[in-house]
From TrEMBL:
The keyword Ligase does not apply. PANTHER family: HISTONE DEACETYLASE HDAC1-RELATED (PTHR10625), POLYAMINE DEACETYLASE HDAC10 (PTHR10625:SF43). This is Histone deacetylase domain-containing protein. It comes from Scyliorhinus torazame. GO terms for cellular component: nucleus. It is found in: Nucleus. It comes from the Eukaryota. Belongs to the histone deacetylase family. HD type 2 subfamily. Its main location: nucleus. GO terms for molecular function: deacetylase activity; hydrolase activity. Residues 66-361 form the Histone deacetylase domain. Residues 1-21 are annotated as: Disordered. One of its GO terms (biological process) is epigenetic regulation of gene expression. Residues 7-18 have a biased composition (Pro residues).
Amino acid sequence: MGHFRPDPPLTPTAPPSPRMASTVAKTLSSEVSLLLADVMAFRTGLIYDEQMMNYNLLWDYPVCSIEKPERLSTSYEKLKYYGLVERCIPLPYREAIEEEIALVHSLDYIEAVKSTASMNVDELKTFSHKYDAVYFHPNSYHCAKVALGASLQLVDAVMLGEVQNGMALVRPPGHHSQKSEACGFCIFNNVAIAAKYAEKTYRTKRILIVDWDVHHGQGIQYIFEEDPSVLYFSWHRYEEQQFWPHLKDSDYSAVGKGKGVGFNINIPWNKIGMENADYLAAFFYILLPMAYEFNPELVLVSAGFDAVIGDPEGEMRATPECFAHLTHLLMPLAKGKLCVVLEGGYNLRSLSESVCMTARVLLGDPVPPLVGEMVPCTSAIESIQNARAVHQPYWNVLKNQDCAFIKDPSTIGIEEDGSQSSTATTAEEKEVTTVFTVSQGFDEFMDSHMKKVLVLTPRVRTAVSGCGEKLTILDQCLQVEKKKITMEEVGILISGGDCAELKDEYLLLSLGKIFPLIDKIMKREVRNGIAVSSTLSSGAFAARYSTTVRASRVLLLLLGETDIPTDVKEDEKILVVQVYGNQVEKKQSKYYIPISWKKDNEWDGDLLSSLFEIILPLAYGFKPELVILAVGSNIRIQEVTLAHLTHFLQVLAEGRILVISQASDLVETLVSSLLGNPLAAMSSFVLQQENALVLVKLRRELKQHWKLL
Ligand SMILES: [Zn+2]
């Protein structure tokens, strides 16, 4: 078929031990084998040890009272409660050795921390107060070595392929600590040392650190600000420098230094009360495009959960399932090598629910729906836009985009008379946001909220119909019988039955494969499905059929050229996005969005850019109950790009997606992505100038109809 293949040929990373999976599977009943396939595909490591609870605050020091041992035990108990611990592979902890600590910290500092093990309370107090917002206990040194050792064990397990991804539940946290300084509850910088360790041990050349804790990990920034091998991304409560740690270095203008310029991304939140839409917008407009261009070999998450609703430090309003979405969005990077290391999080309920949401998605569970209106606030847009503007000179993907500063960076925070501007949150706004942090009703709120977002996982992940039976990977899928569809049955779906295409018997054969898959997906019997169809026009019929059975809103993403019936384009239940490369102008309407590339070859990077900047933001607002991806046979993109696209679309609609492929030789790649297998890296990620302009124009037009993320 006509799609392009990368050179040298790339195949998606195989699931762990595929031969073993298929051999064992054939000896078992089909249902057991499908469940086994699920277990084989997701190997998530978990490190936790009670030893890290063996230190606490020994004197009255209100600033530090929230960092307590229960943060860890509550998170672990919640993982057990949801049955997630037994699904993870337990990884052994170890103590880090001095040589490892010294990858980041000075020997003098290590000696000083070591000496705290024999101090009495008065000495500990004096020692602690030399630093900013940190306390020491005689066990602190030991626990800090265990927390770091656990982080390094996780890196080892992921880099050696013993697990695909994993989580280290550790304390003390690390991201504030610096070369010779403890800070903000942090003693050794677990994630920064983990990055240095991966570089040293595995020769990892590019590492992405995503710091979604609500505080700025200034320690990580300082350690890597001149280092282009580590891309550091942090969002944080800032309030124009009025929030701790009150550093100008936390603003978006800190982009790195020397060789590291462009590799430090700060998104300063200048208001409290940031919500799910604000966090997603930061991922779509900044982090994901830059991360794809950076192409990391390992992703480390400084996973603080103090940016969640109810946290007394963050005072933000994102809900726990937002972290399921963020985790899913990071999984395509670095061939799925993802290490999540706990940092902050001080509301025990928010913390533990968010830890579980993250773990679920690492394990491959469906991503729950996000509630609420998906529109970022003005202040968040300003921070994101300024970060894009300041990074535009360093990143090709931003080069031809709309990236003007919203405020002049040289005057930000300073009024004309030289006084500090007061964009910090007012007392009134704070009251609204903190209502849950002080009220007795928080647990009730959380109980009812979690009931809304905890979704059932269909027993079978992927169903196939009419894809042939030769591919080994299909052993992991449920084969669905096709049924006979008549012209009359289809005719009533579109244009009152007078659609010329109904005379095409190949279309009827395709729909006979597609409709039973839609039935199974919408009945939650399977999570997703795939069928081969000789004609791309089956996509529109599939979408219309879905709305007549159970789906009240369907996102139809078509890759390639085909005519779409007018009544489908105008149907407010079906959002149609058609991406194609033949430059034919098509008339756009609210529910029909054509993206026609000016440059009609190698639009892999362009397609993913349009996904981040247009398709996903639109889809989050539209909230589809089913996603249909129809892939034409003559589109000029690589298979690996389709695999990434298929992964991202599973963040919507609780993972309910039907893929229709016109080319049968794409089936293996698409099924692998539907099964949740790790993805190969894309060979390059370029947004071509001509096509960037298409996206800029389209975004402006869409704002008439849609409140974009
Ligand atoms: Zn924090």
